[in-house]
Write a structure and sequence with these properties.
heterodimer; A: 8 helices; B: alpha+beta; five-stranded antiparallel sheet; 30% helix; globular
Chain lengths: 423, 469
């Protein structure tokens, strides 16, 4: 399977979305000519299909729609000198035993099968929405069940016949984006359904998307889908009441509930963080294996394209360090940072004393609503840090300041982040 | 209007009917294969545990025992020739209590009575060495080294494709609604008109009792027995090395954990007797009940993502054994009451049909010009096209991956659409290529795959998706 020729490069970026392209741009500007592979024919990532404004302020200083932003990111990386390759899938790792000069991957493209060995590999493979099956929603399997991703692509390709009456599962940002897309396609949204006790987006976005006319059914889950050929209805069960109701619809869109596309990370034997389900990374976004880095929504689904692009910028410092110096791989020294419920995950999730974390803060995700909750950081009974946050909302980012890093004991075991939500 | 006149009409293009049509199509016989549903193998055959059974646990002396043992040998050989994925993982029948452990010697003896001699009892230490991720508490196991995984979709498709290649007329979406005897012939009624035939083979699965009634027999009633199954992500595959069986009870073979030829891990099935022959919905009780079993058998499985949940209906009747009938005076035969072992026994059943026909003087000898088929590989063990450098060099479309989770290429979608038995719908494309069957369930590739399929079939994407008529 592995042909004779191995392409040797300094840096390989897997995934040409906002994070991968930002990293590629910065690497190229620093004089390293990275190869960026993306399995789609067109690079640009998820924004290619999110045809609504809200992109580009940070990088391009103007408000852009998703597809234009994606094109701008591609153009910028190209002009900087990155080698961009679409329709190229990384199919696995091709490392031989004892190889310490870099990591090799196998690729498939219409041009054939290849092996690329890179001294630094950046995984920027992104995130996906959990489909109906992974959410274990029982019932029939009729036509009319979609994720936001599939919905947006179908509509972007000009298919405007989706359905007449939809139920949207989820009430986070992307859920409202799905509502907008459905409306654009002439499909009425009968309701949004969330197991949380309120929606998890900005009130303004909710109003814009729904004109205030779409009920958000909270503390509810779909317990059955009915209909043979086409969806006919969903059965909703109230989590607090146990009561059920039938909601007629011909379309169900499963939104949000992000899950990292971590196949390559796992097949490479990287340490996986139990919270993010992504590779465990230190403050420089180094993964557990020498020469392997990770960035973007692979680490934290789903943040905005701007946050992902900032990750891409950030990771380049550690990549350049690794490429330039004959550096030791420091991630092994990192102390794991772990979350206690109701916190779901923290990123980055391995730190060394005095490390500089991106923008001086950690990204946190909670599964509970709370106002003014107190966050505490402990290491082996010793409290390193405590602060009050403004609020936590499930699926929305919260930031934890990193002023405690110089107090870490490198031999003191895992650091635990917990939240007190009594208020 | 007539569908035509043939020597043999096979009713039902599940794995059994397709196997019969394949065998008779290789003889000097005119054969029609009639399927009520939209596709070959799209009923009971598509949703099962996909195991090539040895028959070690059959009831000795039954038709099922004999045909499964014979079918295992026949399908193993045919699969190699036709390119049907088979993986010989072996099975471990795990005893979780001392009571169950005490039953293992009897099960080994039963295997011997079924003509299977390679069972072996292993102790707990050996069991955990072979299956390190097995949950705690197992006390021993019966090893059945020849139990294998097989592709449940390629098998009936290979039979049907070979049948068509040898001149069998395949009629899909063509249910038999009535039958009458007209002189020396049968006249079968279908929505497309009548079909005259000398012989009728009833392999109608869940509808075999209805077809029997059309043929003038009230022999049995099919009670659909639903089996819900959970398919775990391919990343779970390293957790399970063998087919992990429970000690069977009188009612059911129980819940198993098994790898699949595609590289996933399967958990199931449930066994629920229903009235409705179309009730293939999954249920909350079913799914969460299975997960409880899974948590005990391989606890780490529960940390992996679920890729699919599906339910199949087995054609159970009042008796456990197959309902086989050969009526030379009426020129009908019935292959009914075949539950989960039909995939394994299919070629043996076809052989039985040919043998019975030969005994009445029908010439079933294979024609020298009968051809075989080679099916596209969907399995994980042999290289798929995306890993085949020569193939990509000859046709770059084999290097254009469009379904990323399952690594299905544009060429494979094209090939399926241009094959002799092309998919009638998106589910048919899924079973032929695995497109859209991976962990993202179409989050990335729905639009792309559907556009390609639509172009080949002259429809629009929403039509292919069933969103518009």
């Amino acid at each position: 399977m592995i042909p004779g020729s191995v392409e040797e490069v300094e840096a390989l970026v897997v995934g040409g979305g906002p994070a991968g392209l930002a990293a590629a741009t910065a690497l190229a500007r620093a004089g390293v000519r990275p190869v960026v592979v993306d399995r789609e024919p067109e690079l640009g990532g998820i924004p290619r299909h999110t045809d609504h404004p809200g992109y580009g302020m940070r990088e391009f200083h103007r408000i852009m729609r998703g597809p234009a932003y994606a094109r701008a990111c591609v153009g910028r990386a190209e002009r900087a000198g990155a080698d961009l390759r679409g329709a190229t899938t990384v199919t696995g790792w091709a490392d031989s035993d004892g190889d310490t000069t870099g990591r090799a991957v196998t690729t498939t493209s219409p041009g054939g099968i290849g092996v690329i060995r890179a001294r630094a590999v950046l995984l920027a493979t992104g995130t996906r929405e959990r489909p109906r099956t992974a959410r274990l929603v029982p019932g029939t399997r009729p036509a009319g069940l979609l994720t936001t991703g599939a919905l947006q692509q179908l509509v972007a390709l000009g298919n405007e016949t989706i359905g007449r009456r939809a139920v949207v599962v989820g009430a986070e940002h992307v859920s409202f984006s799905a509502v907008l897309t459905l409306r654009h396609a002439g499909c009425l949204v009968a309701a949004m359904v969330t197991d949380e006790r309120r929606h998890q987006s900005y009130a303004a976005l909710r109003l814009a998307a729904t004109w205030g006319r779409v009920p958000v059914l909270t503390r509810s889950v779909i317990t059955a889908i009915t209909g043979r050929k086409r969806v006919e209805a969903v059965e909703l069960t109230g989590l607090d009441t146990g009561g059920t109701q039938r909601l007629e619809c011909d379309t169900v869109v499963f939104t949000g509930d992000w899950f990292p596309d971590h196949e390559l990370a796992r097949r490479g034997g990287l340490v996986i963080d139990p919270g993010t389900r992504a590779p465990r990374v230190d403050a420089g976004y180094r993964a557990s294996a020498p020469g392997v880095f990770a960035a973007g929504n692979l680490l934290h689904g789903a943040e905005t394209a701007g946050v992902c692009a900032r990750d891409g910028d950030w990771v380049v410092a550690a990549m350049l360090d690794w490429l330039r110096a004959d550096a030791r791989w420091p991630a092994a020294d990192g102390v794991p940072v772990e979350c206690l419920p109701p916190l779901r995950w923290v990123s980055p999730n391995a730190v060394a004393p005095g490390a500089a974390v991106p923008h001086g803060r950690f990204l946190l995700r909670s599964s509970a609503f709370a106002r003014r909750p107190r966050i505490t950081v402990d290491q082996a009974e010793r409290t390193l840090w405590s602060e009050r946050l403004r609020r936590t909302v499930p699926t929305m980012p919260v930031h934890l300041r990193a002023g405690w890093l110089d107090r870490i004991d490198p031999n003191g075991g895992a650091v635990h982040v917990s939240v007190e939500t009594s208020s | 209007m007539t569908v035509g006149a043939v020597d043999v009409a096979v009713v039902g293009a599940g794995v059994v009917g397709a196997a019969v049509a394949r065998r008779l199509g290789r003889a000097r016989l005119r054969v029609a294969l009639l399927e009520a549903g939209p596709d070959v193998g799209a009923g009971t055959s598509k949703a099962n545990t996909a195991i090539l059974h040895t028959g070690f646990d059959a009831t000795p002396g039954t038709a099922e025992s004999r045909l499964v043992a014979r079918g295992h040998a026949l399908l193993s050989a045919y699969a190699a020739q036709a390119g049907i994925p088979v993986e010989r993982t072996g099975a471990l029948l795990v005893a979780w209590t001392e009571e169950q452990h005490a039953l293992l010697p009897a099960l080994a003896q039963q295997a011997t009575a079924n003509g299977y001699e390679r069972c072996d009892i292993v102790d707990a230490a050996e069991l955990y060495r072979r299956e390190p991720h097995l949950g705690p508490g197992a006390v021993g196991a019966l090893s059945v080294p020849d139990e294998s995984l097989v592709c449940p979709w390629t098998t009936p498709l290979a039979y049907a494709t070979e049948a068509v290649a040898n001149g069998v007329a395949l009629h899909r979406s063509c249910p038999v609604t009535g039958a009458e005897r007209a002189g020396n012939h049968w006249l079968l009624a279908t929505p497309r008109g009548g079909l005259r035939c000398h012989w009728v083979v009833n392999a109608a699965g869940l509808r075999a009792d209805d077809v029997e009634r059309c043929l003038g027999h009230e022999g049995f009633t099919v009670t659909p027995r639903r089996g819900q199954l959970i398919v775990f992500d391919k990343l779970a595959r390293p957790l399970v090395r063998h087919i992990l069986l429970p000690v069977p009870t009188a009612r059911s073979k129980g819940v198993l954990v098994s790898p699949t030829v595609f590289g996933n891990v399967l958990l199931g099935p449930t066994a629920e007797d229903l009235d409705d022959k179309t009730e293939t919905a999954s249920t909350e009780d079913g799914i969460f009940g299975l997960l409880e079993h899974g948590r005990r058998i391989v606890p780490a499985l529960l940390d992996e993502e679920v890729t699919a949940v599906y339910a199949g209906l087995r054609a159970a009747t009042e008796q456990a054994d197959y309902r086989l009938a050969f009526r030379p005076d009426e020129r009908t035969m019935c292959l009914g009451g075949i539950r989960s072992t039909g995939l394994t026994s299919s070629l043996a059943l076809a052989e039985w049909v040919a043998g019975e026909l030969a005994a009445t003087g029908v010439d079933v000898d294979e024609r020298p010009d009968a051809v075989g088929v080679r099916m596209p590989n969907l399995g994980d063990e042999a290289p798929r096209p995306y890993l085949d450098a020569d193939r990509i060099a000859a046709d770059p479309e084999y290097g254009r991956i469009v379904c990323h989770c399952e690594r299905v290429t544009a060429a494979e979608i094209r090939d399926a659409c241009e094959s002799p038995v092309p998919p009638a719908d998106l589910d048919g494309l899924r079973r032929r290529t695995r497109a859209l069957m991976g962990r993202c369930q179409g989050f990335y590739c729905t639009a792309e795959v559907v556009e390609r399929f639509a172009r080949h079939t002259g429809r629009t994407a929403p039509q292919v998706l069933g969103l518009t008529p």
